[in-house]
């Protein structure tokens, strides 16, 4: 037999548990909504702003992160070497912003790592592992483990005063991972 006072205690505990459960679910919903909102904001920002060459970044760490991601995703790694001083680097970034088909292919098949080369930070130790660069921007294609597959002079991807859509797209298609 349950005493009336025990029943009231149980009822009160039940109410407290329901309140806690509702508060927990509300908190989870708010937190999840915040994450979604941040992702949307980041995506919007990523579309409207280009990633800059940052002399403060650590290319060894950035490559290590890219290798970890590429090993899971099956993507190749594209090292984009240049600097904020480089007009053609800006033109290449603009090319990817304006040519959505090429940009979508790039991001579906490659993890892009920008490597700064400037008077502020030449990243000589990092770049010493790769073939000599004669002009900027310069692209290195790496496999998912970070092994060099190809060194690309971007001058070969230009026509006149701009990057050539078909040449850039052909380059990206040639070096993308072969997917089954």
CATH architecture of the largest domain: 3-Layer(aba) Sandwich
Q: H/E element string?
A: HHEHHEHEEEEH
C-alpha termini separation? 68 Å
Shape: elongated
Sheet with most strands: strand arrangement: 2-1-3-4
Helix segment tally: 6
Total number of β-strand segments?
Answer: 6
User: Any idea what the CATH superfamily of the largest domain is called?
Assistant: Glutaredoxin
Q: Give the structural class.
A: alpha+beta
- Please estimate the helix content: 40-55%
Which labels suit this protein?
alpha+beta, 180 residues, two-stranded antiparallel sheet, 4-stranded mixed beta sheet
How does this model look, in words?
The chain has 180 residues and is an alpha+beta fold. The protein has two domains: 48 residues; 117 residues, Glutaredoxin. It contains six helices and six strands. The strands form two sheets. It has a four-stranded mixed sheet with strand order 2-1-3-4. A hairpin with a 5-residue loop joins strand 3 and strand 4. The termini are far apart.
Short description:
The protein has helices spanning 4-48, 59-73, 87-98, 100-109, 124-127, 165-175; strands spanning 76-82, 110-116, 138-142, 148-153, 158-159, 162-163. It has 180 residues and is α+β, with helices and mostly antiparallel strands.
What is this structure's SSE topology?
Layout: H1 4-48, H2 59-73, E1 76-82, H3 87-98, H4 100-109, E2 110-116, H5 124-127, E3 138-142, E4 148-153, E5 158-159, E6 162-163, H6 165-175
Parallel strand pairs: 1-2
Antiparallel strand pairs: 1-3, 3-4, 5-6
Helix pairs in contact: 4-6
